[in-house]
Amino acid sequence: MNVYLDNNATTAMNEEVLEAMLPYYKEIYGNASSKFYEVGRVAENAVMEIRERVAKELGAKTNEIYFTASGCEADNWAIKGIAFANKSKGNHIITSKIEHHAVLGACEFLEKNGFSVTYLSVDKDGKISLEELENAITDKTILVSVMTANNEIGTIEPIKEIAKICKAHKVPFHTDAVQAIGHMPINVEELGVDMLSLSAHKFHGPKGVGVLYIRNGIRIENLIHGGGQERGKRAATENIAGMAGLCKALEIANTDLGKKTEKMEKVRDRLISGIYERIPYCRLNGPSDETRLCNNVNFSFKYIEGESILMLLDMHGIAASSGSACASGSLDPSHVLLAIGLPHEIAHGSVRFSVSEDTTCEEVDYVLEVLPKIIERLRLMSPLYEEILKGEKEEK
Question: Which of 72, 247, 326, 361 is labelled catalytic?
Fold first, then answer.
């Protein structure tokens, strides 16, 4: 049996999404910027319609939607764009220690270019302190960026409350909602955010296309220069097929979202309880209440390495991960797990399972059959685990 449980890294494209994209590779193939002939005008009209539909799904105005090539680009644009557009007002940015590397990398870049960044700490479940946030805001603060939901441990942050604090201090607020779309309701007006990033491939859309929502009135510098596309804000020939795919995937994701999240919660909880029942010396990372993403399971298995677990899972046809796909080449422990207080040796033994609406109870049961044997096998080769067992026997 092959079981894919790395949906926070990427998802399989929905067949309806692919069908929605095909016309823009064949019949409607024009450049939307070529407005002096019909083929180009048809393409331009398609972009306008797609933008309007995406705006409707997010509760935004049509002219507040800007297409990008990824969630990473959207994050970089939001952070660097606000920083450079408002540097005359201040140079201080606030974010959290558990953000995606796209946000952290952009902030580190700005620190090398004269900006100051405050990295908010998080509690054991990965939640920021609203009090710490408010105390961190100064008259030099020009941006707050806190993710909607964490991609590694599934923590949902109090976005509405953060937005209220930022509004009271007249500080723009950006949220990386890449992992949230398709897993919880997202409406920019209800959340009160000024900017929001998303990426199609996280909710069964195509890779290589994302969106940055920018509330009207927000001053932001361009990230990509060269042409007049996206109303002069982002240069690049429009990827209309990708836009159409993102739009269709977003519409599908929002259809019967409540039923889908309920189904994901069911298989998520089945996996969590099954691991607790079958495997000793393990720890669930992230919250255990309603502030956990419906599809996220992240466990630390003490006394062994997460990479070894993943390799043996792969041999049994099971795909999982040790954290963010964007940092999978790193041997360092997850910055998210370190931020919630895990020591290096425990953080190294962590595995993330992320389900989708298509994940079945049968697939979860297969994982629960295979995983305990893998953990036991690896622990029997662990000198540290051997010492633990020896100590327990001596206590008895």
Answer: 326
